[in-house]
From TrEMBL:
InterPro entries referenced in this protein's UniProt entry, alphabetically: Acid_CoA_mut_C, Cbl-dep_enz_cat, Cobalamin-bd, Cobalamin-bd_sf, MeMalonylCoA_mutase_a/b_cat, MMCoA_mutase_a_cat
PROSITE patterns (UniProt xref): B12_BINDING (PS51332)
Protein's organism: Actinacidiphila polyblastidii
Pfam families: B12-binding, MM_CoA_mutase
Cofactor: adenosylcob(III)alamin
Signal sequence region: none
Protein name: Protein meaA
Lineage start: Bacteria, Bacillati, Actinomycetota, Actinomycetes, Kitasatosporales
Protein family (similarity comment): Belongs to the methylmalonyl-CoA mutase family.
Domain B12-binding: 538-667
Keywords: Cobalamin, Cobalt, Isomerase, Metal-binding
SUPFAM superfamilies cross-referenced by the UniProt entry: Cobalamin (vitamin B12)-binding domain, Cobalamin (vitamin B12)-dependent enzymes
Oligomer status and interactors: Heterodimer of an alpha and a beta chain.
Length: 672
């Protein structure tokens, strides 16, 4: 380092996190403490799908999902164990939780109180609850309640934290999953900002915050974004986000203090672009994506969490997460990045791209407002159909080779990979017996609690939900009384009902034309020929999402492409039991059942579907499965009777549809 550089004052690094949690509260607590000892500066809690969607571990839909993609938290005892020996007064905790965000924040506050924190200390808690339900309707699928009641829960949480935990970020408006669902940079900005408008309008209309404190509310709104590999575009996207937010909060909400209008965001770089093929390439992708949100001081993330190189293969091990943490630490502490002002100020290239993004995103925001705002655009299906269409167009570009993915559709020749030489040890697996232990612990908790107090708290929650009381007070009493996650959620379901979001499949335009001589034309011909040979009208494909996995992007793209290939597609959306899927297969007399599972619950749910099909007398119908499925599990599934297993390396959707036709022909003893 030169003498001049040595005298420069370095900026404070961003918060460094890894998104983590698995198996049990005890196992996750041990992982968190190890990560903090390695230099991680904040926690990012991953909850399992039952916790995210408001089910207890013993619910039928929780089967195979407990502790798979995060930590199960069913009650206050679990939250105590999760943060044991981690002083919350000194912690900045991010919780990726949405439909049940109010419940998890209440549990967190009560644990803080039990650690000896008085009211003043609780008010100093720092962290973030994601709490963005709009993107759940559009992309991630962990929604529970309809848009109106969901917005009420968000509003009540925001007003409560502003008044009682003023350093907490009660919402992390999340465009991350929008990009994973196919959003362009313009859509990512416009949909996130439209969500912010819907939330802030609702908060201020509730009358729970006086007009003179609007700036305090705006100052606690944070964002969680995605950074893809198109470095320049992603960096400009962040600058555009900041400019639009500054204008919006000043002009629409009258916030004069520039500090309160600051665009505050955290980032997880793009997991969508991580590949199963040549997964070592994921390391440089992660680094490039991190640079897009750290190099530019004027648009630098306040918190960064990086995926691991092997997330397309399965659950990362602690060592893999450590590697991602070290990537951040090398940039922050070894390079001179934090010693300089903004590196891109004055760049005419950057300014032009930012101006373009601002103009296009502002126009799309105006269109959404014309439709009645973000919530109306969710209920009408407009936002979902736009994302499905954008994603279909991107997949078509990849399959045609227009968009190049190294190791996938270009430069596919590779040397043997020592990182994946033993695939069984290249990822972490959750002990299948873990679920039974968690369920047993839940039953013990229910037996030991004061049942009368728990039922009284639930009665108050239902009563407050039916009225207009802020629901945080009743929720805190439920937490203290030993109520479980499922009980809290079902009490609100009783009042609010549930919501099944539009799939966006039926309205998606054709993404791949069946031009003469094209692969799509060949598959369409085989679909029509097979249907004619079977003599039953069109071929029928059931696309099913068993369990609680709400990542429906892959299922939607299969459904759209199968439709375009001439199939009649039966797709009822996410969160179905094996029983419901088999009932639909029988009722619709389908020729093939396709199951999509990304959560790791395939080992429990797929055999259940197969067994139910045998009992229903339709075991001659081929079943194909797609998802993040380790090689050993894929072998087990095929031995159990699955006709074909597709993983992220099978990126050609038209080819997948062709293979489905082959399986239908084989099952019906037709020549392939």
């Amino acid at each position: 380092m030169t003498p001049g550089a040595a005298r420069r004052e370095r900026d404070r690094p961003w918060l460094m996190r890894t998104y983590a949690g698995h198996s049990t509260a005890e196992a996750s607590n041990e992982l968190y403490r190890r990560n903090l000892a390695k230099g991680q500066t904040g926690l990012s809690v991953a909850f399992d799908l039952p916790t995210q969607t408001g089910y207890d571990p013993d619910h039928v839909l929780a089967r195979g999902e407990v502790g798979r993609v995060g930590v199960p938290v069913a009650h206050l005892g679990d939250m105590r164990r999760l943060f044991q020996d981690i002083p919350l007064t000194r912690m900045n905790t991010s919780m990726t939780i949405n439909a049940t965000a109010m419940w998890l924040l209440a549990l967190y506050q009560v644990v803080a109180e039990e650690q000896g924190m008085d009211e003043e200390a609780v008010a100093a808690l720092q962290g973030t609850t994601q709490n963005d339900i709009v993107k759940e309707y559009l992309s991630r699928g962990t929604h529970v309640f309809p848009p109106g009641p969901s917005l009420r829960l968000t509003t009540d949480m925001i007003t409560y934290t502003v008044n009682h935990i003023p350093k907490w970020n009660p919402i992390n408006i999340c465009s991350y999953h929008l990009q994973e669902a196919g959003a362009t940079p313009v859509q990512e900005i416009a949909y996130a900002m439209s969500t912010a408008i819907a939330v802030l309008d609702a908060v201020f209309a509730s009358g729970q915050v006086p007009r003179e404190r609007r700036g305090e509310v705006v100052a606690r709104i944070s964002f969680f974004v995605n950074a893809g590999v198109r470095f320049v575009e992603e960096m400009c996207k962040m600058r555009a986000f900041g400019r639009i937010w500054d204008t919006l909060t000043r002009e629409r909400y009258g916030v004069e203090d520039a500090r309160q209008r600051r665009f505050r965001y955290g980032v997880q770089v793009n997991s969508l672009g991580l590949t199963e093929a040549q997964p070592e390439n994921n390391v440089q992708r992660i680094v490039l994506e991190m640079l897009a949100v750290t190099l530019s001081k004027d648009a630098r993330a306040r918190a960064v969490q990086l995926p691991a190189w092997n997330e397309a293969l399965g659950l990362p091990r602690p060592w893999d997460q450590q590697w991602s943490l070290r990537i951040q630490q090398v940039l922050a502490h070894e390079s001179d990045l934090l010693e300089y002002e903004d590196l891109f100020a004055g760049s005419h290239v950057v300014e032009a791209k930012v101006a373009e993004l601002v103009a296009q995103a502002t126009a799309e925001m105006a269109h959404i407002q014309e439709l009645g705002g973000a919530m109306a655009a969710v209920e009408s299906g407009y936002l979902k159909s736009q994302l499905v269409s954008s994603h279909a167009e991107r997949r078509a570009r990849i399959e045609s080779g227009e968009e190049k993915i190294v190791g996938v559709n270009v430069y596919e020749t590779t040397e043997p990979n020592p990182l994946t030489a033993d695939l069984d040890t290249a990822i972490m697996t959750v002990d299948p017996a873990n679920e039974a232990r968690v369920v047993a612990s839940l039953h013990d908790w229910r037996v030991a609690r004061d049942e009368q107090r728990a039922q009284k708290a639930l009665s108050r929650l239902r009563s407050d939900a039916a009225g207009d009381e802020n629901l945080m007070g009743a929720t805190l009493e439920c937490a203290r009384a030993g109520v479980t996650t499922g009980e809290w959620s079902w009490a609100l379901r009783d009042v609010f009902g549930e919501f099944r979001a539009p799939t966006g499949v039926s309205s998606a335009p054709v993404a791949v034309a069946a031009a003469e001589g094209s692969p799509m034309a060949e598959v369409r011909g085989r679909v029509a020929r097979t249907a004619a040979e079977l003599g039953g009208g069109r071929l029928r494909l059931l696309v099913g999402k068993p369990g609680l996995d709400g990542h429906s992007n892959g299922a939607e793209q299969i459904a759209v492409r199968a439709r375009d290939a001439g199939f009649e597609v039966v797709y009822q959306g996410i969160r179905l039991t094996p029983e419901q899927i088999v009932s639909a297969a029988v009722a619709e007399d389908v020729h093939c059942v396709g199951l999509s599972i990304l959560s790791g619950s395939h080992a429990a749910l797929v055999p259940d579907v197969l067994a139910r099909m045998r009992r229903a007398g339709v075991d001659e119908v081929p079943v194909v499965v797609g998802g993040i499925i380790p090689a050993a599990d894929a072998k087990d599934l095929r031995e159990a009777g699955v006709a074909a297993v597709f993983t992220p390396k099978d990126f050609g959707i038209t080819e997948i549809i062709g293979r489905i036709v082959d399986e239908i022909r084989l099952a019906n003893k037709l020549e392939v």
